[in-house]
Amino acid sequence: MRMQKHADAAPKRQWWRRPPRLKPTLWTVAGVIVFCIIVMGVSAFVAKSAVDSMMADARQLTDNLGDREQVSRTVDGMRDSARNAHIATSHPIWRGSEVIPFIGDDLRAVRLLAGAADELISDVAAPLLELDLSSIGPTDGALNVDAVAELGKRVEEVAPTAERLQIRLVAEGIETEGLLAPLRGPVDQVLGAIDTMADVLRRVAILSPQLPTMLGADEPRNYLVLVQNTAEMRTLGGNPGTLLMMTLDNGAMSITNSAGQADVNSGRPESIVPLAPSTEALYTDRVGRYIQDTTMTPDFAQTAHIARAFWSDAIGDPGHSVLAIDPVFLSNILRATGPVQLPTGETLNADNVVEELLSNVYARFPGDTAESARQQDEFFVSAASAIVEGVTHAQNPLTSLVPQLTKGFENGRILYAPTDRTEAKAVAGTLFNGPLYSTSNRDATTMGVFVNDNTEGKLDYYTDMSVTASTDVCEADEDAIFTAKATYNYTLEPGAVAGLPAYVSTGRYFPKGIKSTNLVFYGPVGSSYVSAKVDGEEFVPQAGTNDLGRAAVLINFESEPSSTHTIEVTFSAPTEDEEYGPLAVAHTPMLEKVPVEINAPGCG
């Protein structure tokens, strides 16, 4: 009992309250989180600053391509900026943050693209830009063939690096649709730019051994040039009534021969060469009977084949390749080289050349006679020769010409069909082949809307068009629907009809001022025709077939001056086991820009 009493009487032991052992851990975690946030904030700031600096340098680079020292300094700056962005986004904390929900994919995309930019600038762009690009010339009217050959060799060296980088980014699987909205557009642009650069370098690398030959290093190289008149529209741009032979002789470029429609015996009783059955079904045999109609087909290789046959039959050697250009392209060239003066005293510049070639020339030589046509042709040839002369003697032409050539290519205003297999391989599957060059819908689901004048005149100088394309392909359970709606405006004022020169509106087949137009609609690859409407009313197309693997129909309509028509055509295509890229519209390059609106619900 005592023991019990003693035990009961023993004082209670005091226990001090100690903080749970968890709290130091929480403080540690909090500290680490704050540290990581600070590191990520600093890294993001450094990366953004580096990217901004790199983009500023890139813009400056475009303006200073002819200054070798300035280019070297700019490239060094871009290399440093790219390396800083790469370092700022490749450390363990950045990588670890990529597991965070909602922003992890964005951080990963930024890291991958920063690394790609570092490699692209250091291993691809810098080696190319180390060359003295100004040495390419032209100097004394000729390009430096040796300098072009050296550039080609350098491209051969760096092209595999760009291609490996492109493949690696594809393998990484950057899904832009899941990124935050502010990042989605820039990431898409960067990925697209890398794809484009890799593709261009690969193609130039293929061409590299051929470049001196293309410049006439061994013997003069002849190019047949079709100058399309966009005041009389055709699918590829316009009536190619003026043909030029452009010769490159050891880098020196000149116009050595020319011809008009009368010179090549246009207006034959039958096609000069056999036509593709689908071409004849859709456009009739006019494509092979009249040189003016050879550009009705969107297949430029076929156009080139027919044009070479016309030239060969009437004049002789048709040259090694065929080019097609138009006055808007010539305007772009003049924007780069500056104005040129014709032997007759007129001055052509970027702002007036389109009006001079497509409108004023018919007022200057207004008669509907063979002599008037000859004078018009001579004016076209004189203008083209002067512009070529201007190109060969321009100051710093590479800096100013490359952006304009690129613009012409992207707008479908320069087409190219070579006879050499190496060159053909290099340009295959590009816009050089024509607007419907793609043979699948995987990369882009392209529809076509093409304008062909049916009036016999030059009234397309007064027209413009817009296109709306729509599809339910991302929501359809069965066959998808694809619709293209063209709004076609004929802007000529009724009061101006009486004063039109005879060659602009002949009045031979339609009353003076009335315009007849064939619009040709193409569906996606593998499509079928469904229906058509003109101004809201059901309409039966005048012609239809399957051309270039696509359903295609032709719709003819007439326009009064100052009028508008809407033409809508619907196609269908299977969705099962088919892959469709973004919806796009290929169209005739008209004088005015053709606005295109895309509606693809559910496609992101």
* Strand percent estimate: 15-25%
Quaternary assembly: single chain
Radius of gyration: 31 Å
Low-pLDDT residue intervals, each spanning 5 or more residues: 1-17
Shape, please? globular
Structure class = alpha+beta
Count the strands? Answer: 18
Detail the topology: elements first, then pairings.
Elements: H1 2-9, H2 22-63, H3 68-89, H4 92-97, H5 104-129, H6 145-172, H7 181-207, H8 211-214, E1 221-229, E2 239-249, E3 252-259, H9 277-283, H10 286-289, H11 300-314, E4 321-325, H12 327-337, E5 340-341, E6 347-348, H13 353-364, H14 370-392, H15 397-410, E7 415-418, H16 421-427, E8 445-453, E9 463-471, E10 480-490, E11 515-525, E12 528-534, E13 537-538, E14 543-547, E15 550-559, E16 563-573, E17 583-587, E18 596-599
Parallel strand pairs: 1-4, 8-17, 9-18
Antiparallel strand pairs: 1-2, 2-3, 4-7, 5-6, 8-11, 9-10, 10-16, 11-15, 12-13, 12-16, 14-15
